[in-house]
Amino acid sequence: MRACYVGLDLMLPALDALIEEGVRIDRIFTCPVDNVYEFNTEIISRAKKYGIPYTTDRITETDVISLRDSGCDFLICGAYYYKIPVVEDMPMINIHPSLLPDGRGSWPMPVTILKEYRKSGVTFHKIEDSFDTGDIILQREFDVSPREDLESFTEKFQMLLPGMTRELVNGFDELLSGAIPQGEGEYWRCPADEDATITEDMSGEECDRILRAFFGFECFYEAKGKRLKIVRGRYSKERSEMCIPACGGYICADEICEDR
Length: 260
Description:
Elements: E1 2-7, H1 12-20, E2 24-29, H2 41-50, E3 54-55, H3 61-69, E4 74-78, E5 92-96, E6 102-104, H4 108-114, E7 119-126, E8 136-143, H5 150-170, H6 172-177, E9 186-187, E10 197-199, H7 204-213, E11 218-223, E12 226-236, E13 243-246, E14 249-258
Parallel strand pairs: 1-2, 1-4, 2-3, 4-5, 6-9, 10-11
Antiparallel strand pairs: 5-7, 7-8, 11-12, 12-14, 13-14
């Protein structure tokens, strides 16, 4: 089989599984990132290791048509900033980190924690003109613990990717022909700065939930006219190094500094 891979390091186990299954990767599309919070270094490393052409240019309809006409069997996307043009007779699959049809949108993981859901998962679905609405090809769920943070959540869905990818490759035609329409669902808007902002009037539980939902990314704390940036923050009742008093306890973090 031959495939085109589109995405970032977030879904790297899927690319590795494709290669391990003997799928020839014709081309990799990734996109410019900060490589601080979002990464493409491992994707590019794989491209160089296996001699796969890659680009950070946005994928176009012409690109997809060229892949189709050259004999590429399918396109698979795992985390990508841009809309991928849908081309007739080119199977196109997206990997989405929620149990669709709930959790449509570009960043459902923090929202899952903010909503205190106790189940989430991974969905492989067909790509359509509208985001995250295509027929479901494969879906697996996992438990979300009461103490889940974004980092542990990510580890859980990444662990599902190799097995799901192998299942896709080995049952490709049957799975695509048997894909199930999603029906009605729920779109979750991408979290904004205000969703990641803690204020001094919040409870310790609210503070903790926000810190866990965005763990590994930036959070903010606003109090007494100041705004602090917090990276990898934890809420605690006990003071330790790199802590500030907040919400009836302390925010401890790898980095606390004024937001500029």
